[in-house]
Amino acid sequence: MWPFICQFIEKLFRETIEPAVRGANNHLSTFSFTKIDIGHQPLRINGVKVYTENVDKRQIILDLQISFVGNCEIDLEIKRYFCRAGVKSIQIHGTMRVILEPLIGDMPLIGALSLFFLRKPLLEINWTGLTNLLDVPGLNGLSDTIILDIISNYLVLPNRITVPLVSEVQIAQLRFPIPKGVLRIHFIEAQDLEGKDTYLKGIVKGKSDPYGIIRVGNQIFQSKVIKENLNPKWNEVYEALVYEHPGQELEIELFDEDPDKDDFLGSLMIDLIEVEKERLLDEVIKFSKFWFNKAHITLMPTADNLDKVLTSIRADKDQANDGLSSALLILYLDSARNLPVSYVLMDALLS
Question: Strand order of the sheet with strand 290-300?
């Protein structure tokens, strides 16, 4: 299948990624791929997990442990600035979810195929001419890491690739599913952190300036930095949309802020199936070499407890950076008809 998968990837690059890049920045309006060759080394599937519980009978959910290490040739240019760059190798490692839905009674038995990563995959790109690309006005503030994050997030939940296999399927509902719930995270405190700051060339051990990174899919939150404290208290609240469970996880990482490179202090992963079962997780968990207080992690999929939610919001609203919500409004913009003729277009035609 690999040659045909490569054809699909090339089509995806030209019809989806290229227009998205052009529309992202005025300086990229002349961006284009001049060559796309993914190479002959196929993607490997190292493991498959099939979900049989808490799954709709009209769908099949697979988690694939994928690994791709390939020598490829992807050349791009920005004509406006006479800039050329390229990619000569790519590595991708991660868990890709494949959803086959809806299952139907006629061939091909599957109405559509959806692909996405549950969390950001490990992505390494060997660039050629990256310096030229970053010299383009409007891009000179970017870095290799930021570019990798942009590419990774394009493939991470809630973003997804949906391929209809029959014409009758409601593709919009598959591409933009309604979230399963809203996850509220109270980021309270940590204890007995490791002191990473040193003085006199490491002779004197200091403290740390800890902060947290919280991830749910491609939704990322960063706490404030607590200066020189090994027992920091953040008392912050965040909300994240949950689109997939089982399989989706809450990731927490702690870092020590430094002028050059931030030091890693520890990490924690929480399966959201735990949260769904318990409704409220309020406990202390030990990870790495320190204690982390993980409290009030809740998942509310319905409005049955709205009064209780509103009460908790009033109590916690001062701790949330952007305030807290009591309900979720979802808007799907489908299409437009009988639009007036653009005067700008008419002027262009007349001239």
Answer: 233-242, 181-191, 290-300, 280-287
